[in-house]
Amino acid sequence: MLLSLTISLLIVLVITYAIFFGVGNKKDKETKEEIEEDKKDTQSTEIEKSKEVVLHFQTDPIKIFAYSSYTFRNFKVENFYKNVVVDRLFIDEPFHTTFVQLLQIFAKTESWIKSKKTKEIKLKIRVKDGSFQEGTSFKIYSVSEIAFDFLDNILKYFDNNRYSKEDQKNVILAALIWKLDSVKELKYLCEENLNDIELRECLAKKLLKHHEKNHDVFQILLMLEAKHENLLFVFKAYDKAIEWQREYPYIEKGDKQYVNIRLEDLVEINSKKLISLNAL
Amino acid sequence: MDDNISKYNGRIEISHVMLNNDKDIKLLRGFEVDPSINKRYMRNIVVMVENEFVTSNLTDSAQFKEELILFSTGDPQNKYLYPTTRTINKESVYSLVLTLAEKKVFIGKAEAKAMVTVWNMAIQGYSFSRLSEYEANQTLETWTSALKFNGYLQLDSRE
To answer: Using CB atoms, which residue from A119, A125, A138 is nearest to B138?
Structure first.
């Protein structure tokens, strides 16, 4: 019985092997041939290699032509330079140099404007040796503080409102030049007996010597003189700067002599240096 | 505060007493407040008319007061208040005239008397020990900073 069972099992195993492997190989061979035939039909003989893409990462510091920190008198002015020229990348000439010259003028000036909220008191004081000193005391604003607050307000306005890069640059220059008439150190540049508008025009021509004659800055200056409604934000910025300005006591005795600011002493276009952006 | 004003690092406080409201004649009193003993010393007495200083130290102010007292017996030797006669309602009256930079102020007899009375009340009860000692230390700059500090240069918002 056992023998017959084992023989029958063996026979069954042999049959199943023959069925599975013998027939299966045949089928595989057929499919492979078919696939190869298909490939020959579809694929071209030469396989194109994809192009190699090489990416160069910027590892060197970016360098721009800029003025070194020695040209500025204090940190406040330096911060304005960083804010306008470096952060916004307004590095093209002639805006760059003219803007730095204006910053230097406003940092140097000792001029003042009489406060709107002041009384005048006439003093006549007997001093130590018994003689009299006379003068008028009132409160003043510092022109340079007003100018920097004014510029700050304009920059804040540009942060919140969209203006093109060119417009921003022209408005910044025009607004600062518009307030140059209160800088008494520059009055020697123009003739005497000029009215305010003529004086501003004269100073604009002296300072914007690198600009073309029909540049947009001159157009914006004319618009400021006419109080154009598109530039109302400039007037608002100035009023705000005045409103929160610090007042100083001042005694006026005779005419104060101001030291002239010479335009030749200000920075020139050629004095820029290559400075990496990270170091600024 | 400026060192020139205060020898004791105290503050200079300025307050005023109106001698005559119609003609805006004030007596400015400068006090030095000694913070260590909390005491006020008078440092100066000044007559101010409208926005102009007439006198500037104790001696001059004393003379101004004396000219007010000697109303009818004053003469052209007076330094501040000149005796004049003017006509009001076709009647000639005697008065003192104070000449300012831009205008003249006339003072009648009753006004002069009242001003002296108020003056005496205004300086009662204060120590004068530092007034005579340090009054010569004043300059235009110290006065300006003290006036600003006490709000005399501030334009009144109600005006």
So the answer is: A125
Count of domains forming chain A: 1
ipTM of the complex: 0.83
From first CA to last CA, the distance across chain B in angstroms is 29
Please check whether residue B51 lies inside any domain of the structure: yes
Residues spanned by the domain of B112:
11-142
pTM score of the predicted model: 0.74
Q: CB neighbours (10 Å) of residue A153?
A: 19
> Of B53, B57, B60, which is closest to A123 when you measure between CB atoms?
B53
A186 belongs to a structural domain:
yes
Residue A20 pLDDT: 63
Query: For residue A51, is it within any domain?
Result: no
Q: List residues in chain B touching A: CB distance below 8 A.
A: 48, 51-54, 56-57, 60, 101, 136-141, 143-145, 147-148, 152-155
Alpha helices (runs of H) in B3-151, residue ranges in sequence order: 58-69, 109-122, 129-134, 140-149
Number of domains in chain B: 1
Mean pLDDT, all residues of chain A: 83
Show the DSSP H helices in chain A as ranges. 2-17, 23-42, 75-81, 95-108, 143-160, 165-178, 196-207, 216-225, 232-243
Domain that holds residue A220: 63-279
